[in-house]
Amino acid sequence: MKGKFMDTTEFLSSVPLTKGLSKKQIEALAGFTRKKKYRTKQLIIGENDKIREFYMIVRGRVKMFKNSVDGREQTLYLFGPGELFGMCATSSDFIFPANAMAIEQSTLLIFPADAVETLGRQDPTILFNMISVLSCMLKDSMTMIETLSLMKIPQRVASFLLFSTLKKDCRKGDNVELAVNQKEIAKILGTTPETLSRVLKKMMAERIIDVKGKHIKVLDCESLEELAAV
Predict the structure, then answer these.
(1) What's the rounded Cα separation, in Å, for the pair 59 and 48?
(2) 8 Å CB contact between 105 and 58
(3) Residue ranges per domain, the chain?
């Protein structure tokens, strides 16, 4: 048990949530949390579930998504190690607005909202850190909304590679390993796997990128940036 506790404390010491907290505060936070493992495609939270806890990914990946009335799925956000979701659970009787599912075997830390509120009353640093994390997520969400509403599919693909994968720091010869497969990327971009495949093949034919499974090599940064900006 002691080893498990120390593992959690060490992990929490390395994430933005605990920036500025003392070792004692981080240990207290670790003491509140519990670890839980999820298998691939296991639902973590369902849309409209009432929750009073939030989550941090230790290993694996989680997607947040919604289903339309005709059964189509739109991926809203992908979360990786160190990232948080469900932070609005600190509001009483919070109803989760989407579905959260593990897309690979994942280990999560689960934080009871009441315990974090108690820690926040003692020292508001953790609450400011949560606001900072939420602000970054809001910025990313606004970029995604702009991408889906204003851009054609080739622009969406180029923007996804630049902003979500390369973080705008594009260099010729960059090798990128995508976090998810093309089927999941299509859901993020609001298109079909077939359309995405055609766009990627066209970009390969134009020597902008080279694609091998989840691996993408950038061949022409300038063309990629021009395509995203059209």
Answers:
(1) 26
(2) no
(3) 2-147, 151-229
Residue matched to tokens 């495949």: 197
In this prediction the pTM is: 0.71
Q: Which contiguous run of DSSP H or E holds residue 57? A: strand 53-59
Query: The domain 2-147 belongs to what CATH superfamily?
Result: Jelly Rolls (2.60.120.10)
Contact indicator for 195, 186 with CB cutoff of 8 Å: yes
Which H helix or E strand runs over 65? Answer: strand 62-67
Could you report the per-residue pLDDT of 14-58, keeping only the tens digit for each? 998 898 888 888 998 999 999 999 999 999 999 888 888 889 999
Question: Is residue 54 classed exposed, middle or buried when 0-12, 13-18 and 19+ CB atoms within 10 A define those classes?
Answer: buried
- Three-state secondary structure call for residue 175: strand
Q: Are 17 and 129 in contact (CB under 8 A)?
A: yes
**Cα(152)–Cα(20) distance, integer angstroms:** 42
